[in-house]
């Protein structure tokens, strides 16, 4: 994952890069195996302890809002990443399946990224793109 957002010049810490890259990799592995991702959350505290959660069995918007509320409620978290399935509009006006990622650290800007994918459940034939920046997000940790 790119550790610098070139439009803002904000550097992502190595800890956040590792946390978000690991979560995205785990979610891509799930998609390759044909599993439903729902919304996945990974948070890390100041002692580098990682807590993970999965949200499922509701509509996509409710799952995402539940995950964001979950992050906001954890005062000990210093960084987080949220991964979920969605779609990204392409230049030709069509949409493509994507794994979306939101990530941030306390007191710093938060960002999003996406990776296009195809071949859900295809195992080794599953394909994905390198993560691409998708813009700045509302910080969840203040």
Low-confidence stretches: 1-7
Count of strand segments: 9
Distance between the termini: 23 Å
Q: How does the major sheet shape up?
A: 7 strands, antiparallel
Structural class: alpha+beta
* Helix fraction bin: 10-25%
Please tell me how large the radius of gyration is. Answer: 15 Å
Overall, the morphology is globular
Our estimate of the beta-strand percent is: 35-45%
The number of helices is: 2
- What string gives the helices and strands in order? EEHEEHEEEEE
What number is the mean pLDDT?
Answer: 92
Task: Tag the structure with descriptive keywords.
single chain; 142 residues; alpha+beta; 7-stranded antiparallel β-sheet; two-stranded antiparallel ribbon; globular; disordered N terminus
Describe this structure in words.
By secondary structure, this protein is of the alpha+beta class. The chain is built from 2 helices and 9 strands; from the N terminus they run E-E-H-E-E-H-E-E-E-E-E. The strands form 2 sheets. Strands 3, 4, 5, 6, 7, 8 and 9 form a 7-stranded antiparallel beta sheet that branches. The chain has a two-stranded antiparallel sheet with strand order 1-2. It is globular, with a radius of gyration of 15 Å.
What's the structural blueprint in terms of helices and strands?
Blueprint: E1 4-5, E2 10-11, H1 14-32, E3 39-45, E4 50-55, H2 60-73, E5 77-89, E6 95-105, E7 110-118, E8 127-128, E9 132-137
């Amino acid at each position: 994952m790119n550790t610098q957002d070139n439009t803002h010049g904000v550097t992502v810490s190595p800890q956040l890069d590792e946390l978000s890259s690991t979560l995205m990799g785990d979610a891509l592995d799930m998609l390759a195996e044909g599993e439903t991702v729902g919304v996945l959350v990974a948070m890390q505290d100041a002692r580098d302890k990682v807590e993970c959660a999965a949200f499922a069995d509701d509509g996509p918007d409710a799952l995402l809002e539940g995950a964001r509320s979950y992050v906001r409620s954890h005062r000990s978290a210093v960084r987080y990443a949220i991964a979920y399935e969605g779609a990204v509009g392409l230049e030709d006006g069509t949409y493509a399946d994507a794994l979306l990622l939101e990530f941030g650290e306390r007191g710093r800007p938060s960002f999003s990224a996406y990776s296009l994918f195809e071949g859900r459940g295809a195992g080794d034939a599953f394909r994905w793109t390198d993560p691409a920046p998708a813009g700045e997000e509302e910080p969840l940790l203040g």
